[in-house]
Prior knowledge:
Layout: H1 8-19, H2 34-94, H3 98-116
Transmembrane segments: 34-56
Keywords: Membrane, Transmembrane, Transmembrane helix
Amino acid sequence: MHKVHEIVCMSTSLNILRYYQAFPKKGTELNPGIGFYLKFILMCLLASVLLIGSVLHLNNTIRTGVVAFTVMETIEHIILRLDHVKYLLGKALKEENRHIRRKLFNFAVNYHIRVLQ
Length: 117
């Protein structure tokens, strides 16, 4: 004989939906009454208003968020390049050979000017 297995997820989901009155009560699935249909229509209207409102709000939030993120990334990039300039200047000043030191120092200064432009 085959054992009948109850689908646990289905009964749990139906109990949750019945608790929040989003599914008809047990025994009234085929004829839930006008109250259920009115609640269902109201729930659909509220859900659609929330969905449209959140999409419109998200559109503005994403635009401003992208601008803020771009500004932050630009500032981070400038900070990294200035740290690199600081490293190049330190390396140039530690060099013992006068000609190489002058060459490295000029390169660091030109690089610094390009970063700030």
